[in-house]
Amino acid sequence: LAARQGLRVTGVDAAYRMARMAAGRLPGDVVLGDSRRLPFADASFDAVSTVWLLHLLSGPEETSAVVAECARVLRPGGVYVTTVDKAAAHDVGSDIDAVLAPRPVTVAVDGAEAVDAHAAEHGLTPAGRASFRGHGQGRSPRSTIEDVRRGWFTQIPADGPLAARLTTALADLPDQDVPRPDPRFGVRAYRKPR
User: Fold this and answer.
1) pTM, whole model, 2 decimals?
2) For residues 53 and 43, what is the distance between their CA atoms, to the nearest angstrom?
3) Sign of CA dihedral 146, 151, 156, 161
4) Cα–Cα distance between 119 and 85 in angstroms, integer?
5) Cα–Cα distance, 110 to 106 (Å, whole number)
């Protein structure tokens, strides 16, 4: 986006290392900040995006706060774009997903319906939806075993009996190093009325 003529892009990240990495790509236009309290005046931007952020938030109140801040810093007529349903996108209907089906799953704070409701609550109207295929993010049985063991599945204690059952079943699947299909990620857009 920054390479496009006439566009000015500003990045925000709460993590110093991520902001530093982004600043290497966008010198002078990356700031440290909290998406729940953005360091910008009202109506500062024509567009705001939160790609792969909402799923990291702790609950609906925090998600609502982030959407509220995005709405606040948008100019009238501006567009807010965000990814939705990130965790669900990884379920591609594969043999790996069948093995993982009994695991406990938390309610997604980035569920499309929930994000739609937060957007409406903060005065944003639906402006579009799309999806895109991940690139190189399909799971293989072996990589999924590693993810279970390192605690990537936060509801499965890595040293517990469920993890042991799942990793044993995953190890029995064929084609241990063959990735299953890449996930398809959802995107929603909302507009701030003029």
Assistant:
1) 0.90
2) 21
3) positive
4) 15
5) 11
CB 92 within 8 A of CB 134: no
Tokens 């952020």 -> residue: 53
Give a three-class secondary structure readout of 138-161: CCCHHHHHHHHHCCCCCCCCCCCH
Q: Give the DSSP per-residue string, 74-123.
A: EEEEEEEEEEE-HHHHT--S-HHHHHHTTS--PPPTT-HHHHHHHHHHTT
The predicted-structure confidence for 12-21, as pLDDT tens digits, reads as follows 999 999 999 9
Q: pLDDT tens digits for 79-133?
A: 999 999 998 999 999 999 999 999 998 889 999 999 999 999 999 999 999 999 9
Q: Using CB atoms within 10 A of its CB, is residue 194 exposed (0-12), middle (13-18) or buried (19+)?
A: exposed
- CA distances, 112 to each of 57, 97, 116, 161, 168 (Å): 14, 21, 6, 33, 34
Distance (Å, whole) CA 132 – CA 93: 17
| Helix 60-73 and helix 112-121, axial crossing angle in degrees, nearest 10 | 50
Q: How far is residue 173's CA from residue 167's CA, in Å, rounded to a whole number?
A: 10
Q: Among residues 87, 34, 44, 102, which one has the least CA distance to residue 65?
A: 34
Taking residues 169-187, report their average pLDDT.
Answer: 97
Report which of 45, 56, 108 is spatially closest to residue 81, judged by C-alpha positions.
45
